[in-house]
Amino acid sequence: MVVSSKTAEGYDAGEAMCPYRLVLEHVTSRWGVLVLIELLERPYRFSELRRAVGRVGRAVSEKMLTQTLQTLERDGLVHRDAKPVIPPRVDYSLTELGREAAEQVRGLAAWTKVRMADVERSRVEYDEARALKARVVS
To answer: What is the pTM of this model?
Structure first.
């Protein structure tokens, strides 16, 4: 187990020891998945992206979306384009690396949609077996 701590630069020291796991966590995080899939369609402004991600499930907070976008930008998956206009305009899009990751994540999301009935059936069987075992033990 790698114990990480914040460094002066603001990222985990454990990152150097297990960089693959951290990138996987970023890409497959609750909001990372949704952001990547949405950005596959087109570039978004922050508020548009927040609404689009919120349509899929629970609304994402500004803070959480900001953190997710910064993390994905740092990993080279998302491009932030701040235009010097008034009012400020910032667009987010996928980099080529981000597009590759997003395609993979979208494939996994599609698989879950197709196989959800099987997962639900397995959950019911598991829960029933656990309940039966609990009754036998008590």
So the answer is: 0.78
